[in-house]
Amino acid sequence: MRTIMRTTGRRCDRAREYASLRLDGELSDFERALLDSHLERCPSCRVFADDLVGVTDRLRTAPLEEPAIAITLPRRRLVALRRIQVSAAAAAAVVSVVGIGTLFSLLDSSATTRTPTAANLASMASEKRDFRDLRRAVLTTPHPERHPGGLGVLNV
Question: Where are the domains of the chain?
Answer without folding.
Answer: 2-61, 79-153
